[in-house]
Amino acid sequence: MQKWIMSGLFFAACALAIVLMFTLPSREQAEQEAKPTLPEITMNAAGAEATVKANCISCHGDALQGAIGPNLQKIGSQLSAEQLYGIITKGKSGGSMPSFKDRLKEEEIANVAMWLADKK
């Protein structure tokens, strides 16, 4: 009797493993889903400045000179618009940069990222 129970559990575990192999995303798929993609928009500098003034100056300073957060005055020479979009969307580990995906629309984040990328 015990052999039948053990073999039943073994076959159930094998069936579950096979189902999971075909339904779980691969590592590459998971990385792609985790990486935000910059939407195609036309940059609006005035809109980006307004968004920055409303959301960023408390940490990055009123002239983006840096305060609690780093200086962003020439951030475009270090990071691309796509990289900035990812950082603003997801934030940075350790809580040094919060995520803005729940506070701002994708288009607003993209606009700010493109505006910052022009700062070289």
Order of helices and strands: HHHHHH
| Alpha-carbon Rg, integer | 23 Å
Please tell me the overall pLDDT: 90
CATH topology of the largest domain: Cytochrome Bc1 Complex, Chain D, domain 2
What structural class should be given to the helix and strand makeup?
mainly alpha
- Termini Cα gap: 75 Å
User: What is the name of the CATH architecture of the largest domain?
Assistant: Orthogonal Bundle
- Unreliable residue runs: none
Please tell me about this protein's structure.
The protein is an all-alpha fold and 120 residues long. It has two domains: 27 residues; 83 residues, Cytochrome Bc1 Complex, Chain D, domain 2 (Orthogonal Bundle), CATH 1.10.760.10. Helix content is 56%, strand content 0%. The protein contains six helices and no strands. It is elongated and about 75 Å long.
Short description:
By secondary structure, the chain is an all-alpha fold. It has helices at residues 2-23, 27-34, 45-55, 57-60, 81-90, 106-117. The protein is built from 6 helices and no strands.
Per-chain topology:
Blueprint: H1 2-23, H2 27-34, H3 45-55, H4 57-60, H5 81-90, H6 106-117
Helix pairs in contact: 3-6, 5-6
Give short descriptive properties of this protein.
single chain; 120 residues; mainly alpha; Cytochrome Bc1 Complex, Chain D, domain 2; 2 domains; 6 helices; elongated
